[in-house]
Amino acid sequence: MNDDIKHAIHYHEETKHSELGLQMSRHYLDWDDKPRPFKVYQELSSIPLPQDFPIPTADALTCIRSVRPFLPESPLDIRALAQFLFFSAGITREMKYDSGTYYMRAASATGALYPIELYVISKEFAGLPAGVYHFCPGNFSLVELRSGDYRSKLAEMAGGNPNILSSAVTVALTSFAWRNAWKYGDRSYRHWFWDSGVIASNLLAVAISAGVEPALVTGFLDAGVNNLLRLEQRSEAAVVLAPLGSSLVKGPEVSDFRPDPEPLPVLDIPRIIPISKRETEHPEIWKLHDASSLLSPKEVAQWLSSSKNKFTNVASEDLSQEHMQDKRQDLDSLSDVILLRGSTRRFSRSPISKNHLSTILFSSTRGVPLDVLAKGESLVDIYLIANAVEGLAPGHYFYNRHAKSLEQLDAMNELASRNESGYLCLGQPLFSDASAVLFMMTDINAILKTLGNRGYRACQFEAGVVAGKIYLSSYAQGLGASGSTFYDDAVTESFGPHARNKAAMIAVGVGMPAYKARRGKILAARLTKSQLLSNG
Ligand SMILES: Cc1cc2nc3c(=O)[nH]c(=O)nc-3n(C[C@H](O)[C@H](O)[C@H](O)COP(=O)(O)O)c2cc1C
Q: Is the pTM of this model over 0.90?
């Protein structure tokens, strides 16, 4: 089924935004049925995580762009685990509105709906027995789902993945489909990967800052991992696995690995408090999810081996434009940047410097440690519309991440470029006001031919990680950023022949905020049950 790529092509076409499509849409939001943002188990008790965890003090930009740790590792204990979970998905702001209180988090999330749940598959730590746990950011605790060391079982489900095998802990990211489908319908399957990608970009940076080597695993037996995490079928599913600390445990454990002949016991699905009164089925989501699932160890191995070294989708022309240097100006710590981060709600229209832009581009494109990518390769390219960047004419550009250079595709006047970037982002004025709007784009057909339907997950996910890095590297320089959705085909057309075969994955506007944003806080809180169950 993964090879039958008509499923991904069909889904992508059917979920494109166009101006006409949105005008004709009858979709409305049933506020009375808004899903709750926290997963609360009815019968399982939780283990509080320590609130006195270390904070990532390393320089933010270095952490964002590094793929390997550059500092000595700090001990990977339960406090370090609490740090990773908090700075990836913890609560950093409490916003009170007439309609209720919203708990905003360390990473962005489409529509602030927070469909991504985090789970931990861990060895024993002092204060935490080996097991499989669910992380609840609302009361900063773990719920035990299985007791025992399941790391080698998980590694086996990912084709004997050596990073999982040698890591003390793997964080699994899942998506609760209805949480986001409530607002975004069938298109929300794309958001599974965008929303997990931005969380993963935080997780990568925080791991790097702790001297721990992270990896991202997208090739695994879907049903096996969902069973391990005791997920309700057709409700929630695993998206990506993030082993942390693979460099800490040395060789023998990996070379001694033998698959366990015993099948993983199937346990009952723990009861949770329903996230909504009623859920509407979105079969298109599950059709593609099934069609991109890996069903046997053979399929996992095939998929992994089909991918490496095949992607060189950076254009081969000589891009002789100005060489962009990554010149550092300030040294904000990663924790400051993550706490400051939010999605900018109004840009001032004042220009950013060329150095700001080149630092964002450079820091976001040094590589994502995805299992399907050979070192230095990427499934996504960045195109951008510059509206107000000192020293750059307004217009369309392509970023060559290898040459670290921008190729100018055309020149426009500022009014025209602002109109264009705002229009492409569904006419939202925020993206006319941004100094530049960056579009992650990918040659979907080439990727599907090599990776099958699952390649669709991989390129959307990588775009999410890059978008997360754009957010962080903007805030690290005192700028603001916001993700955006877009009119799909209009984006491809806008970038002309250069982007002819490429589809937009995600857009992110960057610029000077028009206001001083309040810094977030470490709210590793213990929300009460009624707060956890409110759907603000
Ligand atoms: C992939 C992505 C797309 C987004 N699209 C939009 C958008 O089209 N318009 C908008 O105003 N905000 C957009 N956002 C911002 C979210 O609304 C924002 O992340 C969410 O409200 C949480 O707030 P925070 O980022 O300030 O923590 C997007 C965010 C992401 C990650």
A: yes
